[in-house]
Inverse folding.
């Protein structure tokens, strides 16, 4: 999508502090971190939100959840003590960028309820 900031980051048009990248996914540090470790994991393919995922995206989501997030949690040293993964969806869910993204937060105790 031409005007999507996350699509521009994924394509390299907008610089970012990238911590992981492969042919399907880009992960980068959040500009306004809410924890000592706060990374956004985005698919390179534009999907607006969790509600926009289709059957063809199962492998992509599995890759993010089963491969990328655990790898990043270990590399960023939050796997042992724990971390949180969040996918905000829609306005009331707190989604501010309409491109599917997962927040990986760690490095401090996460409280519940979150907000």
């Amino acid at each position: 999508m031409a005007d999507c900031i996350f699509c521009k980051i994924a394509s390299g048009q907008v610089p970012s502090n990238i911590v992981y990248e492969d042919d399907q996914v880009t992960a980068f540090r959040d500009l306004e971190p809410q924890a000592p470790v706060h990374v956004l994991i985005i698919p390179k393919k534009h999907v607006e939100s969790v509600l926009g995922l289709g059957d063809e995206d199962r492998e992509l989501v599995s890759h993010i959840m089963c491969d990328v997030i655990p790898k990043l949690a270990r590399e960023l040293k939050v796997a042992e003590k724990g971390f949180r993964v969040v996918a905000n969806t829609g306005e009331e869910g707190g989604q501010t960028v309409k491109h599917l993204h997962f927040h990986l937060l760690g490095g401090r105790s996460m409280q519940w309820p979150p907000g």
